[in-house]
Amino acid sequence: MFPGQGAQNVGMGKELAKNDPEIAAIYSNASDILGYDIATLCFEGPEEKLNNTEISQPAIFVTSVACLKALQEGKLAPGLADVTADAFAGLSLGEYTALHAAGTLDFKSTLKLVQIRGQSMQQAAELSQGTMVSILGIDESQAKELAEAVLAENIDEGNGRSPVLAPVNFNCPGQIVFSGSIKACKRAEERAEEFGSSRAIPLKVAGAFHTEMMVPAAEKLGHALKNITYLPFERPVVANVDANWYSGTEEIPDKLLRQLVQPVRWQQSIEFFLEQGAERFIEIGPGRVLTGLAKKIFRPRKVKKTIETVSA
Q1: 253: how many CB neighbours lie within 10 A of its CB?
Q2: Which of 92, 109, 128, 269 is catalytic?
């Protein structure tokens, strides 16, 4: 499992690169491809710049690849060095890392796609002025009711803009993230308790990701996805948009574009793996977000699975 945006932290990968020339070479190669020093941003910051969507997405991808390399070499979690993954998945941005790990996208192609994705999402966010809010303690039907109730208020977002609001990140039981225009998200935060929520938490994000407000980003990314050579899958990957396997490389452009403007079904993706008989889940990359989500997904199902984290 590979993490998405928000997993970044200043210092990620620093010790790995310091002690392993091959890992350092991954960051150096990435800097050459990107046209700026991604290594220094990961290792030293500043935090404000690293948290920028345009920077954080390539940074997380490169660090996740570095962690995967270190794992395979036995430099991180030596006990897992001989483990071969049966399948891959990634949360939002992490789906690109999963496709790379599965062999269908080479490092340079994936990094260029991630760079374009981050840039276009940042640009779309600046144009549309959206945000996100995490609503705790409700299920999908309650989330849909809340969104419909807020949109029925016909909120004036200003400058002739219509309100946008949708549940877009189904992370784990009781944690659904809403995305949309600023006033609509604020109203959802205010009304969340009416629909059974225990708490609403505004998120510090650049824009309304995974909604129609990202259509301009999808248009730019679409051009790049058409010019990529996709290799056959070495291992299967589960897609965010439908919590199901990619049936072939021809599905990659469509599913990655839909992911920008449609909900990310992470909880359903992990539940799909459980239905397939998965016993061991390993998070690879900065942070431990997916490890925590997996535990919350397993708990109500009363299943005991092995969850491990390989981070740096």
Answers
A1: 16
A2: 92
* Mean pLDDT for the stretch of residues 110-119: 98
Give the model confidence (pLDDT) of 22-47 as tens digits.
999 999 999 999 999 999 999 999 99
In one-letter notation, the amino acid at residue 165 is L
Residues composing the chain: 312
Which one of 109, 181, 197, 210 is the catalytic residue? 210
Is 92 known to be catalytic?
Answer: yes
Q: Are 285 and 60 in contact (CB under 8 A)?
A: yes
Q: What is the pLDDT of residue 58?
A: 98
Say if CB 209 and CB 217 are below 8 A apart.
no
Q: Per-residue pLDDT averaged across 148-160, rounded?
A: 92
Looking at the chain, the whole-number percentage of residues with pLDDT higher than 90 is 92
Provide the CB-side half-sphere exposure for 24 (13 A, CA). 6
Tell me the pairing of strands 306-310 and 280-284.
Answer: parallel
Print burial letters for 271-304: b (CB count within 10 Å at least 16), e (below 16). Answer: ebbbeeeeeebbbbbbbebbbbbbeebbeeeeee
Cα distances (Å, whole numbers) of residue 67 to 9, 14, 64, 130: 14, 11, 5, 33
Cα angle vertex 10, ends 17, 90, to 5°?
Answer: 80
**Report field, pTM of the whole predicted structure over 0.70:** yes
Residues whose CB falls within 8 Å of the CB of residue 310, separated by 6 or more in sequence, listed in order: 67, 68, 70, 71, 76, 77, 80, 282, 283, 284, 285
Looking at every residue in the chain, the average pLDDT score rounds to 96
> How far, rounded to the nearest angstrom, does the alpha carbon of residue 228 sit from its chain's CA centroid?
21
User: Known catalytic residue: 210?
Assistant: yes
The closest of 7, 178, 21, 32 to 90, measured between CA atoms, is 7
261-300 pLDDT tens trace: 999 999 999 999 999 999 999 999 999 999 999 999 999 9
